[in-house]
Amino acid sequence: MKLSTLGLMKKTGCLIVGFDAVKREFENSASKMAGVALARDLSPKSKKEVLFLRGRHRPEMNIVELDADMEQIRSVIGKKTGIAAVTDEGFWKALSEGLETI
Question: What is the pTM of this model?
Answer without folding.
Answer: 0.90
